[in-house]
């Protein structure tokens, strides 16, 4: 009973983590860009649902999913065009640059929507839950389904579409892709659009499980990066496994230790450091003869 | 020679500051100087070593808490509990606290705690050739985890409120202006000594090796050095400096809370260095002073727009002055040189290690 309960909680933490880190896997993985503003794109997605609520009514969350994808994507595209493309080869500087942008976006949200948290009402069909020994709320199921759906869509995109295959080519060997005629700049834009769009989708999902505030995204960004590091750069499989593993680990540590929540993060951190002793580049690695 | 004159001039200015500033302003200056000590360490680890440490607040905090625990115990007196413990219902002094009643132990721990954590993390991470952005992400995660731990252990650490209400600092009365002036002088001396030591370190063969590793880690490895050891030493050294700074911060500011050492605080420690110039020690110190001064001014006058200013500073420095204020002259020189010789081949810049 206890174990099953923790597993369910862990899976639902994992689904949220997965949504938050899915986009990062690509922007970080393909372009080596640490986008600290990713968290603010999540926040923008959440506010998109909030803005749509009075216009659309009860089903706002469903309508918000594609809209938030576009909002996040466009924000990401602007960021890439204006700044990040000048920073290729300087990943650490990009990190600080995007941190600055994330501060600005947070304050914009505060000025536009106010500092206090706002609520998005979930549609009626998401209240309640199913019983499988433990009660699983429908909104958690929805997030899980959404996460799985996003993963499926991306893996289809990467394997079936020409554009997606180009993306993989650039990820595996940028220079070789460039000399083979792939317009790497275009691919980078597409990657950034999709990666940031996924952040917007994650934001809509977060409105189902809590209030929306200007710092919504920054709470997830550190964990999301850990998922990418543990899973391996640009590795869809790695991100999925790492997200759920971290989610389940989190929920079990919280359950086992008396003053749980406070130790969980430290344990997770230690486990990741230990894990990197065996797999320094994460769970899955692109095979390459390059030294670094 | 010019450097020596500048150093002497700044030393005189800092030592003369109490003559000009009100006690309130002097306290602020003392606080900025603490941040400047951290900045020296960051300039070594990041500027020279290329290790972007986003968790410097952890080491600052470890030093600070070691000192804070000692001060609280002295104040409570032998056999008594610090005030916040009785508020949170702790009845016996926790085992972790006991040795901190001893001043020597506490002072040793101010350095040993952060250095140990940094050594452990550094060895584990750098040995596996985890570097660049990976290391930055991990150090940030460490800061996040540390804060959550501190907040969660209410009875042990004072939780969100942290440690507050310090009255005595090794015999100095922290409510007395004259005694506070002595504290200020102590901080100036520590900063000066730290500067000299770090400068010596940066100029030594070791410092050159560190820069070589920053610019081409694998090449240095092929020459037979162990980059992991060299990097870990610089990282641990910067952690030790941050610990000392944290320990001095506690009596100056009179409180230490998890907010002083979290993810955001760690980044604020870093941005000062970026603004001043990460490759220049003096630049890092100046940048830290300037940034925190600007923060005080802005958040007093226009608290809402401070985040805009801070964000814009990050963006502007990275876009237009990656070498910081101290590097502006060199940057201009390069620009002029590039104008004069448009045909010259672009200098080969090694890509920063991608992973």
Task: Report on this structure.
Chain B: One of its GO terms (molecular function) is branched-chain amino acid transmembrane transporter activity. Chain B: This is Urea ABC transporter permease subunit UrtC. Chain B: Its main location: membrane. Chain B: It is found in: Cell membrane. Chain A has helices spanning about 1-30, 40-55, 60-80, 90-115, 140-160, 160-170, 175-180, 185-205, 220-230, 235-255, 260-280, and strands spanning about 130, 135. Chain A is an all-alpha fold. In chain A, helix 2 packs antiparallel against helix 3, helix 2 (about 40-55) runs parallel beside helix 4 and helix 10 packs across helix 11. Chain A is globular. The termini of chain A are far apart. The mean pLDDT of chain A is about 85. Chain B has helices at about 1-20, 25-50, 55-75, 85, 105-125, 135-150, 155, 175-205, 205-220, 225-255, 265-275, 280-300, 305-320, 330-340; strands at about 165, 170, 170-175, 255. In chain B, a hairpin with a 2-residue loop joins strand 2 (about 170) and strand 3. The two termini of chain B are about 40 Å apart. Mean pLDDT of chain B is about 90; it is low at about 345-355. Chains A and B meet through helix 4, helix 9 and helix 11 of A and helix 5, helix 6, helix 11 and helix 13 of B.
Topology of this structure?
The complex is a heterodimer of chains A (292) and B (355).
Chain A: H1 2-31, H2 38-56, H3 60-82, H4 91-113, E1 129-131, E2 135-137, H5 138-160, H6 162-172, H7 174-179, H8 184-207, H9 218-231, H10 236-256, H11 260-278
Antiparallel strand pairs in A: 1-2
Helix pairs in contact in A: 1-5, 1-6, 1-8, 1-9, 1-10, 2-3, 2-4, 2-8, 2-9, 3-8, 5-6, 6-8, 9-10, 10-11
Chain B: H1 2-20, H2 23-48, H3 56-76, H4 83-87, H5 103-127, H6 133-152, H7 154-157, E1 163-164, E2 168-169, E3 172-173, H8 177-203, H9 205-222, H10 227-253, E4 255-256, H11 263-276, H12 281-301, H13 306-320, H14 328-340
Antiparallel strand pairs in B: 1-4, 2-3
Helix pairs in contact in B: 1-8, 2-8, 2-10, 2-11, 2-12, 3-5, 3-10, 5-10, 8-9, 8-10, 9-10, 11-12
Main location (chain B): membrane
Transmembrane segments (chain B): 29-47, 54-73, 104-126, 133-152, 182-198, 228-249, 269-293, 305-322
Protein name (chain B): Urea ABC transporter permease subunit UrtC
